[in-house]
Each structure stands twice: as C-alpha cells, then as structure tokens.
Amino acid sequence: MAIGPILPYLIKPLYYYLAIQVYLEGYLNIPPEKLNTFKGTVRLLFQPETDTHAFYLNYDMMEIQNSEGIYWINL
Predict the structure, then answer these.
(1) Record's InterPro entries (predicted)?
(2) CB pairs under 8 A, 24+ apart, for 48-52?
(3) What is the DSSP letter of 59?
(4) Which residues pair with 53 in a beta bridge?
(5) Which of 27, 36, 47, 50 is paired with 21 by a 20 to 30 Å CA distance?
(6) Residues 19-50: pLDDT tens digits?
(7) Average pLDDT in the 59-71 region?
(8) Using CA atoms, how far apart are residues 4 and 57, in angstroms rounded to an integer?
(9) How crowded is the C-beta side of 5, counted as CA atoms within 13 Å?
(10) Position 59 confidence tier, pLDDT thresholds 50, 70, 90
(11) 14 has a pLDDT exceeding 70
C-alpha cells in the first residue's frame, strides 16, 4: 500500500541513460566468478513537479544529487 501520490505524478523525467557491460561465456577467457554477471551504469535526470523537500528511494548504494532543482541518480 502506497502512501501519497505515486512517482509519475511527482516528477518530470528529463533524461535516461543505461550502459551495461555483460560477460558472455565463449567470447572471452572469463574467470568462473565472472560468468553470468554484468556491470553497468544507470542515470536518471528528473525535475519535481511540486514543491519537494526530500526523495526516498528504496535501493542500496544510490546517490541523489541536486543542481538548481534538477535531480539525478547514479546507480
């Protein structure tokens, strides 16, 4: 059960960026601990549609940065 309005009504998305590096078996000599793993970058740029004092997102190792009312998230 959510409390308050849901996210699409609170923010205006401005930019999305996704980059993923995948380790594929058979193409490279990959150590066993790297098989079926990936690393990547996700960046979301958004602007609040209403007066906002704080954002809380349920995700580990997330950093929310702010510059003149425009926020971005690096995961």
Answers:
(1) Aminopeptidase_N-like_N_sf
(2) 48/10, 48/11, 48/12, 49/9, 49/10, 49/11, 49/12, 50/10, 52/10
(3) -
(4) none
(5) 47
(6) 776 666 666 676 666 656 666 777 777 777 77
(7) 61
(8) 14
(9) 10
(10) low
(11) yes
